[in-house]
Every structure is written in structure tokens, then in C-alpha cells.
Amino acid sequence: MSFGGVMMPAQLPPVTADMLVVFAITLLAFSLFATERVPVDVTALIVMVALMVLEPWTQISVEAGVAGFSNDATITVLAMFILSAGISRTGAVQQLGKRMASFAGSDERRQLLSVVSVAGIPSGFLNNTPIVAMLIPAVSDLAREGGTSPSKLLIPLSYASMVGGMLTLIGTSTNLVASDVSARLLGRPFSMFEFTGLGAIVFLTGAGYLLLVGHRLIPERIAPDEGLLAEYEMSEYLTEVVVAEDSPLVGRTITTIDEAFPPEIAVVQVLRGNEEIEGSSGATVEGGDALIVRAGVERIQRLAGTRGLSIAATDVTEATFGGPASGAAADVADGETERVATARDSRTFVELVIPTGSSFVGKRPVETSLGREYGVDLLSLRRGTELLHRRLEGLVLDRGDTLLVHAAPETLERMAADPNVIVARELADRGYRTDKLPLAVGIVLGVVGLAALGVLDILVAALGGVIAMVLGGVLDPDELYDAVEWDVIFLLAGLIPLGIAFDRTGTAALIGALVAETAAYLPALGVLWVFYVITALTTAVVSNAGSVVLMIPIGVATAGTIGANPFAFVLAVTFAASADFMTPVGYQTNLLVYGPGGYRFTDYARVGAPLQLVLSVVTVLGIAALWGV
């Protein structure tokens, strides 16, 4: 169809009971996704079970319902998670981060260029979510050491990884799922570099926007020279009190002094002279010891007279704990003299991010390994724009939460290997298998090359790469399971049957005919743009993989109704599903940087809406020019 031609759509197909049932299940899924009453992977399983139970109307048998678990795309995504983990264990991304820091220095424009390049280009060959997780510490440190607000660099980190993921088939799980659906509906899966030309245009457009316009729109939510205590407004909640000689606390072991206080007060640290006293040593409290406690000043004042405690005159800062934790630029206020000499084993402050799929989600901190295994002191929690300081032990953790904790360096090293949290600072020694770096990179390049040349199917090549990672010692066998983001796997497996039900029951054809009504007023190119926008908005509710599964069948049906190129609509959905720049919840990488950047929900719309509009036009025009409409 020509760009300028306008075609009247065909008559709408009749609405059947089968369609109504599928619509009802879809609305249930949308409501659960939007309200987040249950995790997204559980929602997908609910959808899958509902489809099988209602088989007479959904046409989804038990075999079709569970087919998502054996689907090529699901297994390929699983394998790509493991390959990405192999690269991570060698420290390859961190090496790029160091080069990024040495190139950027304190120049904000060079910092931004480095972040966009280091996040974007590797995201074309590795899953972009782990890349962002690995780069958050390096970018946060780069910002603070270079005198730049972390807020200025973390949204660009996420956005660059999103547009970089569109460079190849394996850049994001969305592409792999879209390829599978395209193969099922059109008999045309994506090749490795099927849309690399368009992906390069999108990446360069996105990078140019971030460098020239986007960075001006990002507010500085975190001051460049602000330490973590100031950032989390802890001055009113951390107090230093001195134990009197006649205090009833004298003689108690340090591990039990918390029992002497109400639950709202927690002892963070015990200082004796210029040294920190560790509770594990069995030491007892002595007169003259200083306690750093987390509580409101008014609460401490009420206790001081009765407990044999006196409030110290000086404020508690990072210096009190042996130095700042958020990078070299986290200055001590007004050049205050450090009370405690910095010790090699002294505790430090750090932020922890709870990622999607973490086992901590839905649990209280005391129910997780934060308290049981790691023994960290939880000082504050950032949830969206809220900073929470009180009753932290009773809060239920959610994905995207950012925790301010006080922990020992060796504890941070163990937590850095825990997939349930992201330590938002770069650690000196992570035990990377640097000697395996060439092998790991070679394996990934081999997977890409074999799939691109058609020697092996991408699924076979990826699984072969996993085997090579294990046999080559890049990954231990017991690390394979921790490498997989199981919530994504269950999300894909649960929603793939819904896409099949859309096709089999004619629901996709009905919605496609409704969308095609716009053809009465718009040329095919305009309908394609409308479909791009609808998909991008859908992604904000049901996730990128979910929108691909739901929208591609509708796009193919729409194209058939108006006589357009169905593959163009497949590509529009694929690109739009990775273009949710307007919210922190529609794409995992946006959520990962939400807390560490100190962002507000509206910051994403402020920066992302213009980018989304620009890319909608660029992408649709690119599809029309390269594949035709």
C-alpha cells in the first residue's frame, strides 16, 4: 500500500463467547499487572491456569498451556541470562567501567558519552538488564568522584541500554520472544542482524537526544557532593550518646544492648576512644563508650536521663564511622575532624537496590538474609519519593526499594554476589575470574557468529555457549541457576499461551479490525505509528515481553485488514515494546536506577516523553524505508 493511500477497513467480525472469555482473562491480567497485588510471574501463571481451565472457550489445551516452558524463545532467554552472567563473573563490564572513568574525568559531557557508549553497545550482545545492574556501582562512583550528580547519569544509563538492546536479536528478551511469535504467525523469525540497521539509527538518535537535550531535562535530585547520610536525611535519626559510668548498660555484652532499648531504637555502632568495638568479640559495654543509635532525637532525650546516657554535642556524619561510603567525593561536612581513624575493617555506608525477581520482595528485612546472614544495620529506605526512617523492621520490601545500610567490607563483597540485591558502589576486590575473560568473550562471539551465519539455530548456539562456559571454568555448575531471572522466564511461559489464545479465538482479529478503523482517516504509515504508540503504552502496564506476546497477533491482524505489510507491524511492536521511557516500572532497567538516582516518578515522563515521541517517528519512518508498509 502506498503511504498516501487511504483504505476503508473491512466489516468488524462478530463478537463470540470465546472472545469475551479471552478479553476477561486479559483484563484480569492487566489489573493484576497494574496494581501489583501479586508478583508479575505469579500473574502470568494465573493467566496460564485460567486459559487451561477454560479450554472450551480459550482453545488452550493443557499441552498448549504449558508449551511456553518449552518454547524456543523462553529457553533461549534462559541461556542468554547465563551467558551474560559468565561475562559478569570475569569482570568484563567493570573493566569497561574503569576505562569509562579514566576517559570521562570530571567533564559531565564526557561522562555522559562514556555511560551511553558503555551501556548501549554491549547491550546489543548481552541481556541489557544485567549490564545495567553491573554498571550502577561504577556509574554512581564515576558521578561522585567527578563532581556530578548521579541523577544526571543513571537515567541515561538505563535509556542507553534500552536502545542498545535493539541492535541485535539477542540484545533483549523482547526481541527473542517477538522473533518466536513472528515465526509462528508469519513463518518469518528474525535473523541475528535482521534489524541492526534500524537499531543503529534508533541508538544514535537516542544517544544524540541524551547528549544534546535529555541531560538538560534531568533534575539533580542528589547533590554532587552530598554524602549518603545527608542524602537520606539521617541527621535527625542518627545520634551519638555517651554511656555514663553508673549506667545500667555497663557490663552488658555488646550483642545484647539492643534488648535494653525499645524496638524503635537500634544501636548501629559502639566506639571506644578511636576504635570500633565488634560485638562478635564478646566485649562488654564500659563507661565512657559512645553508642551510635538510630532513633529520633526526642526519643533519645527521653531515655538519656533514665538510662545513664548523655547526648554528644557533635553531629554524626560519615566521618564518625570511619570515612564516607559513597565515593571519594562524599565529603565530611565543614571539614569536621574524624572521631574515628579509618580502619581497614571499619564498617561503611552503602545503598542496596532490590531488583525485580528478588526473593526479598514481599518480606520484612528481618525475614531476609540482610539480618540473618549479613548482619547489616538498616538505617533508611527510599521508596519512590519517600524516605522512610521509622519502624523499618516491620516494612515489607518491594522491587525498586533502595536501602541505606551500614556494613563491613567483607559483608559487602558477599552481598555483591547475591542476586537478590544490587550493591550500588564499586568494590575493590570482587574475586572476578579475569583470566577467563578472553574465553568468555570468545564464547559469546562464537554464539553470535554461529547463529548469524546460519550454522546453528540461536537456541542451539546459546545452549552450546552455556556448556562451554561451564566446561571452560567461566561459571561453576551451581552458579547457573542463580544467573537466571526466573520471574522473566515464568512471565514468558505464562503469557505465551495468552498470545496463542488471541490468535485462535479471533480476538486478535477483532482488535485488529478496531485499530484498522483508523485507516479510514490515516494512511497505512499513520496506522503503523498509532500501533507503535499503543504498544509503548501497553508496555508500561504489562511489561515489555507481555506487550510483545499480546500485540504482535493484533498487529498482524491489523495489517491483514488494511492490506499492509504484516512484518512492518511486527517490527513496530518489537521496537515499541522496548521503548517505555516514561515510567520507572514498565522496563526493568528503569526500576533499577530509580532509587540510586533519587528520582521522582514524573522525572521519567519529563525526560522520556520527548524521546519516546522522537523515536516513534524515527522508528516508523525507518521501518517504512527499509521494509515498506
Automatic annotation (TrEMBL):
Matching entries from InterPro entries are given as: Cit_transptr-like_dom (IPR004680), DASS-Related_Transporters (IPR051679), Na/sul_symport_CS (IPR031312), RCK_C (IPR006037), RCK_C_sf (IPR036721)
The membrane spanning regions, by residue number, are: 15-35, 42-61, 73-92, 153-172, 192-212, 439-471, 483-502, 509-534, 540-560, 567-587, 607-627
Cellular localization per UniProt:
Membrane
What GO MF terms are annotated? monoatomic cation transmembrane transporter activity
Specify the superkingdom: Archaea
Q: Which PROSITE patterns match?
A: NA_SULFATE, RCK_C
Q: What is this protein called?
A: Arsenite transport protein
Q: Which organism is it from?
A: Halococcus saccharolyticus DSM 5350
